[in-house]
Specification:
35% of the residues lie in helices and 18% in strands. The chain is globular. The strands form two sheets. It has a five-stranded mixed beta sheet, sandwiched between helices. Strands 1-3 form a two-stranded parallel sheet. It is built from seven helices and seven strands. It binds iron/sulfur cluster.
């Protein structure tokens, strides 16, 4: 009764934006999925449960940034990458600790992934932070992970990894040419370094299977001939009454 109303309230269509850049959050994502998103291929609306999960993540970010403000260590929060870059995105915060600035990337993670991150961060989180370090020219940062179920915290202090940054920039520069300049569907990706099977949750499986690189153009509206209407000839009708002979 109430659940159906709430599901409907939370579910939403994701707007399609024309763009010629990537989001930092797309590092580690399947390039074909990025292609389909950029080209505005149809996808089901975001269901209520997923939308609520995202909202919980946003609340956690706000709570942690507020606490860091309370500690008096925040230099800046929600810091955008300078305009015109290959990537767009906002770092959660830059903090000052013992006289050094650190870019902080906050991640709320599923308990299973949190356990997987016992000794090292997730690769996509690591690469995303590397891009912020590169664009802000800050040589160190912190990945702060919160367990979604228990709110346990874990942190990884990382240094700028120049070879990895250069590799990611070169990879996405090539992808920019494929997608934005040539409008081509990228080849099937090497899935060996994926954190999880992205195909399982992909909304574009059917397009990908058929190698569709362009949506069919919507049919033009039917043009009907504009001829004057044919009116019936005037005639004299003999009105037959109910009791008349035929
Ligand atoms: S089905 Fe798999 S390979 Fe294809 S676009 Fe989706 S995630 Fe990428």
């Amino acid at each position: 009764m109430l659940i159906e109303l709430l599901e409907e309230y939370f579910q939403r269509e994701e707007p399609h934006r024309e763009r010629d850049y990537f989001y930092v959050s797309e590092v580690g994502k399947c390039p074909r999925q990025i292609f389909c998103t950029v080209k505005g291929f149809p996808r089901p609306p975001l269901d209520g449960q997923t939308a609520r999960k995202l909202a919980v993540g946003e609340d956690a970010h706000r709570r942690i940034v507020q606490a860091m403000y309370g500690l008096g260590i925040v230099v800046a929060a929600e810091v955008p990458i300078p305009p015109g870059a290959l990537f767009h995105g906002r770092a959660d915060a830059i903090v000052s600790l013992a006289g050094k600035n650190y870019v902080v990337e906050i991640k709320t993670v599923h308990p299973y992934n949190f356990d997987q991150m016992a000794i090292s961060p997730r690769r996509d989180h690591y690469l995303q932070l590397q891009l912020y370090l590169h664009y802000f020219q800050i040589p160190q940062g912190i990945i702060l992970a919160e367990n979604k179920a228990s709110q346990e915290l874990r942190e990884f202090v990382v240094e700028l990894d120049r070879p990895e940054v250069n590799r990611v920039l070169a990879e996405f520069e090539a992808l920019r040419e494929t997608i934005f300049l040539r409008g081509e569907l990228p080849p099937l990706p090497d899935k060996s370094d994926w954190e999880f099977d992205q195909c399982k949750y992909c909304p574009f499986v059917d397009f990908c299977r058929e190698n569709i690189s362009q949506l069919p153009k919507p049919a033009a509206p039917l043009e009907l001939p504009k001829e004057p209407p044919v009116l019936p000839e005037p005639y004299e009708a003999r009105i037959i009454g109910l009791f008349d002979e035929p």
